[in-house]
Design a protein that fits this description.
This is SpoIID/LytB domain-containing protein. This protein is an alpha+beta fold. The protein has a domain of 80 residues. A seven-stranded mixed beta sheet has the order 5-4-9-12-13-2-14. It starts with a strand and ends with a strand. The relative contact order is 0.14.
């Protein structure tokens, strides 16, 4: 058991551009008040290159992979080759602007670069609350709803603390892509002020179950009017993640969808998956398939096929669909967007618009949970 105290877990190590191969990046500090450190390959400090860099802060450093080392340049001036580099802000509000693979981002905190497997590993060392704000903006910053932002902030913070050790062996805590939480920059776009207000209002607040363990804080775009049991998508049932009617998601956001698929391709797929003939009996069963409530499987002649597999293979928005014949195609008419487990973002936005609090939003989508201060919780 690990006890979080006020001094612990305030800074996270988040791998940036984690879904890309990086050979070179540009980094620009927003002020002259930062340190530039040379690192050993294990990330420990070798030496100080600059202590509170004295030159024009608008100038950009270029870091490139050269064999097993990093080449550092400032403009056309070569500053040497190093096993690793750390651009350290003097406080948590120091900002660095980064460009890699033509993608521009801005981050608070510090930036560490090492070579791993012939590629760049770029890591942002960032205060937990700044990270949470960046996640809320990246994952859900499109609709200015304060209570919705509060709910997302609690989920983002809970996820981060629950998964601190996920990539510990690789030298960081989390990634910046969908395998962790999307974190494409500090919060700095249109609804930044409202997001920061939401993060401040829920400072240090996390979501726990009745055993005071951190909740699996998952979410999706739209439930289609009914959420999904965790075991219907993944293997393990989670008591806080049970299927329930979700009227708030009906008719809003990405609630409905349609997709046309060649009928012979569609029918042949199921025949192959079940090991049967593509005959009238199978086709009739598929065309009569309805989901008045969400189903986990399509069942035919005593065999079952998980709808999550169908969704993946046909790239569907959800597993919540019906089938009808339309000429040479089948027309899938679906509801919802995403895996359907946990919080429905469209539903949460609708609740926020109707005046529900973030506490009510979280209680709507997670069973038997409570809000707690992270400093009071023991986690596995």
């Amino acid at each position: 058991m690990l006890a979080f105290t006020k001094a612990e877990a305030l800074d996270l190590k988040v791998r940036l551009y984690s879904d890309q191969a990086i050979q070179r990046f540009l980094i620009t500090p927003d002020s002259a008040k930062f340190k530039l450190l040379a690192l050993h390959s294990d990330g420990s400090v070798l030496d100080t290159i600059y202590d509170i860099y004295p030159k024009d802060p608008s100038r950009t450093f270029v870091v490139s992979v050269k064999g097993k080392r990093l080449q550092l340049k400032l403009g056309d001036e070569s500053l040497g080759e190093f096993e690793g580099l750390y651009f350290e802000g003097v406080d948590s509000l120091h900002q660095f602007r980064i460009t890699a693979n033509k993608r521009n981002r801005s981050y608070f905190g510090g930036v560490r670069a090492l070579v791993r497997g012939g590629q760049m590993q770029i890591v942002n060392i960032v205060n937990l609350e700044h990270y949470v704000a960046g996640v809320v903006e990246s994952e859900a910053g499109h609709v200015p709803e304060l209570e919705f932002f509060k709910a997302q902030a609690v989920l983002a913070r809970t996820f981060a603390l629950r998964n601190l050790g996920k990539h510990e062996a690789e030298g960081y805590n989390l990634k910046d892509d969908v395998s962790s939480q999307v974190y494409f920059s500090k919060a700095h776009y249109t609804h930044r002020d409202l997001i920061l207000k939401a993060v401040a209002a829920t400072h240090d607040t996390i979501l726990v179950n009745k055993d005071c363990s951190l909740v699996l804080s998952v979410f999706h775009a739209n439930s289609g009017g009914m959420t999904v049991n965790s075991e219907d998508v993944w293997l393990k049932p989670v008591p806080e993640l049970k299927s329930k009617i979700d009227s708030f998601s009906i008719g809003v956001g990405s609630y409905s969808w349609e997709k046309r698929i060649n009928s012979q391709r569609f029918f042949s797929y199921f025949a192959r998956m079940f090991g049967v003939k593509n005959d009238a009996e199978l086709q009739k069963a598929l065309l009569n398939f309805e989901q008045k409530e969400r189903q986990k499987n399509f069942t035919y002649k005593g065999k079952s096929l998980k709808l999550t597999t169908v969704r993946h293979d046909f790239k569907l928005r959800s597993t919540y669909f019906t089938v009808e014949l339309d000429g040479e195609d089948v027309l899938l008419k679906g509801k919802g967007f995403g895996h359907g487990v946990g919080l429905s973002q469209d539903g949460a936005i609708e609740m926020s618009k109707r005046g529900y609090s973030y506490k009510s939003i979280l209680s709507q989508y997670f069973f038997e949970v409570e809000l707690e201060n992270k400093d009071h919780i023991l986690v596995n």
